[in-house]
Amino acid sequence: MATIHEVNAEVRSDEGKGASRRLRHAGMVPAIVYGGDKAPQSIQIEHRIVMALAKNEWFFSSVLDLNVGGKTEKVLLRDWQKHPYKLQMMHMDFQRVRAGEKLHTAIPLHFLNQEKSPAGKTSGVVVSHNFTEVEVACLPKDLPEYIEVDLSNIDQGDIIHLSELNLPEGVEIPELRHGPEHDLPVVTVHAVKVEVEPTEGEEGEEAAAAPSAAAEGSSAEGDAGEDK
What digits encode the pLDDT tens for the residues 66-88? Predict the structure, then answer.
């Protein structure tokens, strides 16, 4: 059974920038709910509640139960605006979802057991996570909070593509519909090339060899001149 994540909000009657500024000063976050063949609704949420919810990964990728004045709707958080330097949420957008209608959203990837893998135990080998999330399509009831990527068997030269992700039943990756060229690498494993700098002794030998080579060239030119 899917976990229920409830967010409590209140109806907002004031509109405009001035009203939004007043709400923020009062410790509230202005927000809007749209979609689902209903008119957009302006709401407000306590800032302390928002900041507590924002510490959870699921808040940004799961279907939420938005409770506005005792009425609950299924929604996804679609957009949010943070203050450029303050720890403050400025505005949020929620989209209504319907039970029988597929939704598209980005889901985080959780990489597991890398340290136990042959690649993780080998020095000079780098495991690159090329994506931290992936867009999926599914019904709201099938939406996972995250997708696990098991790296326990990866070794040097291995690649894990989008098509190799272990997806829950009813979940698909729309990008793969567009052909094999869209089957992008999620994880790549490669060795790091280490350039060895010459030691002081080797540098001295190279420097000594340079004049010797120049002298040989000069001698060869002199011999050619005598032949003429």
Answer: 999 899 999 999 999 999 999 99
